[in-house]
Amino acid sequence: MAGLEIPTWDPETALLIGTILLEAIVLYVGYGGLERLFGPYLMKFLVGGDADAR
User: Fold this and answer.
1) Is the pTM of this model over 0.85?
2) Which of 22, 40, 53, 54 sits 20 to 30 Å CA-CA off 6?
């Protein structure tokens, strides 16, 4: 039957996909942490007011 075959995975391809996913997670968490640490200070510097007043 067409479309019901189980694809075979190349270990190299699986490693590449895993590496890309891990990199995306690390960047997401890293940039989130940086935004939490430096976001209010950067907004205060750029805008000149309180970043929390919305």
Assistant:
1) no
2) 22
How far is Cα 20 from Cα 12, in angstroms, rounded to an integer? Answer: 12
In a domain, 6, yes or no: no
Q: Is the pLDDT of residue 7 over 80?
A: no
Compute the C-alpha angle 23/28/33, nearest 5°.
125
Q: Is residue 30 part of a domain?
A: yes
Q: Is residue 32 part of a domain?
A: yes
Domain that holds residue 27: 14-54
Residue 51: DSSP 8-state: T
Taking alpha carbons only, the member of 40, 42, 38, 37 closest to residue 54 is 40
Per the structure, the count of domains in the chain is 1
